[in-house]
Write a structure and sequence with these properties.
The chain has nine helices and eight strands. The protein has 211 residues and is of the alpha+beta class. It has two domains: 142 residues, Jelly Rolls, CATH 2.60.120.10; 63 residues, Arc Repressor Mutant, subunit A. The strands form two sheets. Strands 1, 2, 3, 4 and 5 form a five-stranded antiparallel β-sheet that branches. Strands 6-8-7 form a three-stranded antiparallel β-sheet. The longest helix is centred in the middle third of the chain and has 27 residues. The chain starts with a helix and ends with a strand.
Length: 211
């Protein structure tokens, strides 16, 4: 699998520039990560920027009490804006990134970012669009966490997660969902039981099927 072919298929904005394609072919590295791999460590310096080919990566903030605050998912055809910002400024990452589904990526060395930004307008447009998309994703998450009641938050979470995975089944434990929504396992279990009683979901071990 060549990097040029991957870019043409998955990153149409980057593929508009043949010169940029040549540069990414020269500096990029294809790599795969298994589910649950930590690809972005909190309080660590950025070494590479991922361009996601397939799979799913979760970006979140881990609180002192162990709860997680979900920020956004990196989906195929996207990159991590936190990594880009921290890499450009040579600062430590303030969030964590974990692979939700086995994934393949093109890794761009951090020290190549300045050259890409300076010499390739298509790269800048790609990054601007990523900032724009993730900004609205974070705003939506803030709305859910701030204004929605717990049952609505849970329903929205399950619908979004199933859409990302393109399946009606969400493979997560009650505790994992509680962590992502900043709630407790007991509350999430109670709400899931209510959704099951209402005929909206079917529950089994580490599986929630949306009906």
């Amino acid at each position: 699998m060549s990097i040029t072919k991957v870019i043409n298929t998955n990153f149409p904005l980057l593929a508009q520039s043949s010169y940029l394609l040549e540069e990414i072919e020269k500096i990029g590295l294809l790599h795969s990560f298994e589910k649950d791999s930590v690809v972005l460590k909190e309080n660590s310096y950025i070494k590479v920027i991922p361009l996601l080919i397939n799979g799913l990566i979760k970006i979140y903030k881990e609180e002192e009490n162990g709860n997680e605050v979900l920020l956004y998912y990196i989906k195929p055809g996207e990159t991590c804006i936190v990594s880009v910002m921290a890499g450009e400024k040579d600062e430590k990452a303030t969030v964590k990134g974990v692979v939700e589904e086995d994934c393949s990526v093109i890794l761009i060395p951090k020290d190549k970012l300045y050259n890409l930004r300076k010499n390739f307008p298509a790269w800048n447009m790609f990054i601007y669009e990523q900032f724009n998309d993730k900004f609205y994703e974070v705003i939506d998450m803030v709305k859910v966490l701030t204004f929605s009641n717990k049952e609505k938050r849970l329903e929205d979470f399950l619908i979004k997660k199933s859409a990302l995975n393109k399946t009606k089944t969400v493979n997560k434990s009650h505790q994992e969902i509680a962590n992502e929504l900043g709630s407790s396992r007991e509350v999430i279990s109670r709400l899931l039981k209510k959704l099951e009683k209402d005929g909206k979901v079917a529950l089994s071990l580490r599986k929630i099927k949306i009906l």
